[in-house]
Every structure is written in structure tokens, then in C-alpha cells.
Amino acid sequence: MKKCKNCKIGFEPVKFNQKYCLDEPCIKVWIESTKLKEWKKRKTEIKEKLQTVQELTKLAQIYFNSFIRNRDRNKGCISCGSQLGQKFDAGHYFSSGGHKAVTFNEDNVHGQCVYCNQHLHGNLLNYQIGIQKRIGAERLINLQSKAHLEVKFSREILKEIISIYKDKLKRSESGTNKN
Question: What is the pTM of this model?
């Protein structure tokens, strides 16, 4: 016996996942709820199709930065070495505004205290020292060579970046981070 989701009266389900009894008012509620679920699903699909490159870039940046913050939460600030508190930034060595090619490059972005990132405009001299210690000279030179390339992200690439960093964030939060 199951309880009807609408009238709360017990009934014997015909199918294992049946949530409503077969009384007429309950069937109407069931049909309406099914229509509403289908509309919400279609609406989500329509919204995704209509997202602009700018909106997708913003969303990709959110997931990417969240991943970086989670990755670096137990490391000190890349610039000054201070312990990162509750609120800290994902600081870019090469700014994302002028260096699109490395905007989503994990070597280019590190946990940085709000003071260094926002008030000292990245504290870049100390950032360079910190980044070289963290990733090594060879990777830093490789990053510098990529930084000045011209890149224009397509909707498909941005959707892939969003998917990758959603997954990486989920794995790093659950402690199963296997990059």
C-alpha cells in the first residue's frame, strides 16, 4: 500500500513508481504535475540554447574560479603567503581581460588573498615569485608563451569548459580529485 501524493489516501499501486491513486481529481493533479515537469525541462533546454557567449563565459569563469579556490584552499596566498581565510580570490597572473588564451589555464590562476588581488592589483612582483615556486620555471615560461596568443571562445568550447570544471569541482569537493 502507498499513500496518494494528492489525497493522502492509501492505494495499491499498479506500477512501482506510481505516486497518485486512480481517482479522477488525483489523476488531474498527476497530469498537471507531469505537464509542469515537462515544461520546466523544455524551458531549461530553451534557456541553454539561447545563452550568449558572454553568459557562457561568465558561467565558465564561475566554475573555474570555484575550482581554483577549492584546489588552493589549504595553500597560502600566491603573492604574500598569508593563510587564506574564508573569503579569497582566484587571482590571475595574466589578466583574463587582456590574455584570453590563459583565462582558463590552471597554471595562470591561484588562490590569492583579497588584499593582494584587489587592493594591490594582483601584487604581481610577489605573484611572479610565488608562481615560479609553485609551478616551476619551465611551466611559467610555457604559460608566458601562451598568454599572448589570440583566442576567441565558441559556445561549444565554453560549454565544454563549464562541464569540465563542474566535474573537477565536484570531484575536488568530494575528495576524489584525479586530474
Answer: 0.75
